[in-house]
Amino acid sequence: MSDPVGIIGVGQTPYRKRNSDKSAGELARTAILEALSDAGLEPDAIGAVIGGVAPDALSGIGDIDKAAIAMPGKPYIHVNTGGATGSSALLAAKTWIDAGRADVVLVVALERMGQAATAQSIFNTIFDPIYEKDFVLTTITMAALRATMLMNRDGFTGEHWAGIASRNFTQATRNPLVIGAKARSVADVLASPVLAWPIHLYEACPISEGACAVVVARGDIARSRNTAWIHGTGGFSDTYSMGDRMHRAEGSLIEMVPLRRAAQVAYRQAGVTDPLSQLDLLELQAPFAIIEAMAYPALGLCDIDANRSFVDKVIAADAPIAINPSGGAQAANPVSATALVRIAEAALQVRGNAGDRQVSDARLALATGQGGATQFSTVCILGSDVP
Amino acid sequence: MPARAATSACIEGYASSVGEADARRSLPELIFGVVSEALRAAGCTMNDVDGVVIAAHDLIDGRSLSSMITGPAAGAYLRDEIRVSDDGLVAVSLAAARIQAGEASKVVVAAWGRVSEGDVERSSRVAFDPVTEQPLGLSDRAVSALRASAYLRLHDCPARDRAATERRRRAEASTQRPLRAAPCEAVFPLRPDESGLPSDAVAAVVLGIEGPHVITGIGHGTDPARIGDRRIAQFDGARRAIADAFAAAGRTPAELTVAELGGATLFDEAMLLEAAGLAAPGTGLDCYADNAWINHAGGAAAGDCYPCRGLLRMVDALRHLDAQTSRRPAIALVAGGSAVADQTAAAVIIEAR
Any idea where the domains of chain A sit in the sequence? Predict the structure, then answer.
C-alpha cells in the first residue's frame, strides 16, 4: 500500500468579479504564499507544481499560468479540464506523489475571467460551429435544458431551484472569501431576471476571479502536520453531445453518469458504503442550482426517483448532511479554480480551520468537480484520520 | 526528483499522422484514426484501457474547451481522462506516472494540432505579456529566431548549410512527411529550410506495463517566463529535463542510439543537442549533420504542430528503435518543449527490451 497522501496547506484569495488592481501573478502569489505558510514550508520544499487554467481564452492572455504560476527550476504541468480543472490538477498531484516523483506538490488554480469581454461568448465556442453555435448555446442554456428535463420527469418546480440557491447564498454570508455575499430569499431568487428559462439570475453562478493553492504531501511531512488526508478519488469523462446522453443504457443526461462512477470509485477506496451517514459534509461544484440537485442521486445520497423529496429535505434543512457550508460555486465560481476551491474548503473543514463556516465535528468530507456541461466529473474524499 | 519508479511504463503501441489540410476529415476523425491505429498496434481495444491523457490547446483547436469535442475521439468516454495544455511529452509523463502509481495498467496518450484550422502563430503571440512583450511582436517563431541570432553571434557555425541540407534530406526520405505542405515563413536570421513544416498532426501512444519499449527515465525543466530573463541560447529548462531523465535511467548521452529533439527549427534542434550533452557548445549543427541517428526523420522539417511536437518526435524515435538491428542496446532520448516558447520542457529515455 502506498504512503498516504494529504493536503497540508491551503491558500485562497478573496473571490470577486474583477481584480483590476492585481495581476494574475499577484493573485497566484497571494494564494501560494498563504498555502506555504499554512503548510510551514518554504518554496524549496516543493518538488513539482501543477497549475490549472481553463479555458485558455477566458483571461485574454494565452497560457497565463506560465508566467503567473510556473516556478523556474520546478517541474510544471498545465492541466485544463474546464470547470473540473482544479480538481483534476489535485488528482494529478496525488498521482505524481504516488508515482514517487515528489514528496510535496503545489497545486495552483487561477481564474481571470473578469478580463473577458463576455464569458458566455467564449463558452459559445465550445459548440459545433455548423450545427450548434447559432442556437446561442452557452453554459447557461445547457443547464436550462437539464432543468426542464428534470421538471418534466420528476415534477420539480422553480421553487426547488430557488430554494437551493437561497440556501447557498445565505451560507456564503459566513464565508469572508466571497466578496459581496448577500443572503437571498426564495422570493428574491424568483424575482431575479430569467437568464434562460427556467434559470433565474440568482440560480446561476456569478463571474468570479481569484486563485486557490493547496500543498499536497506524503510521508513524515504530512504525518507531522494538521493534514486533510485523501481517502479516495475518482475521475470520469463523458461525451459532450447532449443528444447522445438522452436514452442510453448507462444513464441519461440528468443522471450524471461520470459523477456517479467517480463517486463509486472514490467510495470504494475510502470504504464508504452509506455516504449519507458516513460523510459529514459536501462541497459541490455546482454552478447552477439544478446541477446541485442532479448531483444528489449521482453521489448516492438518494434514489433518482426520490430526488425531489430529498431536495425538499435539503431546502427545509432536514437532510442529515451539511451541503456547501462555503456557499458553493453559486456564491463564487472562478471557473479554473472552482473545483480546487471545493477541495480546499473540504480540507479546511476536516482540519477544523474553516472559521465561521466550520461544520461541527467534520471528519469526512466530499468535494466534487464538474467541467464541460457535466462532461468531466471528479470526486475527492478528505478525512481527518490517516487512511 | 528524477522519475524512475518500481513499475516502469512501457510503450505497447504507437501511431502518428502528419498531413496538409484535408477538409473532408474533421479533427475528431483525424484523432480517432490515429488512436485506433495505436490501439491496433498495441493489440488491444479501448475496453482494455483505464484512462486517457490528452495534450491539446484550446486556442489552436479553436474551441474554448477543446477536449469536450475531441476527448471522446481519443477514447475518453466514460473513463478517466485528463488534459494538459502542454506538449505531448508532458502527457506521456503524466500517463507514465499513472502507471507508476498503480492507478492504471493501460493508458492512451494523444496529442494533436491542426494548422489548417488553428493559427498557431497567432495563438503563440497572445501568450506573451501584453504590456512588455506583445508590442514587440513576439511569437514562438520570433523567439526561435532570436535564439538563432544569439547562437550565431556566439558561434561561427560553418556546418549551417550542411546541417540544413542533411535535415531536408532526412525529411524528404521520411514516409510520414506531408508532400504538398510548405515551410512556414522564416524570421531572420532563419532561412526557410531551417524552419519547421506546419502540418495537421496527430500522434498517439498506448502506455502499459508490457511492451517492447520501456520508459526508463523522465525529466522536467522550467525556465523563467520572461524571454529577457532567460539565457536565450541555452535551453536551460530542457537541459535540466534531459539531465534528470538520464539520471533516472542511469544512462549517459554516449549510450544513445536514437535522439529526437523537438525543436521548432534547425537551430532549436541543434541547441537542444548541446543541452543534451550530445554536442559541445557551438558544434550542434556539425553533430546534427554528421549523425543520421539524430532526428533521423528530419525533425520539425518532416511535419510539426504544437502541442503535438514532442509526441511526434517520440513516435519517430519508436519507429527508429524498431528499425535498428545492431546488437548494441537501443536507447532513445526524446525531448520537447511547451509554451511559452519552450519555457517548460520534458524529456524521456526509452529503451528497447
Answer: 5-117+207-214, 119-203, 226-383
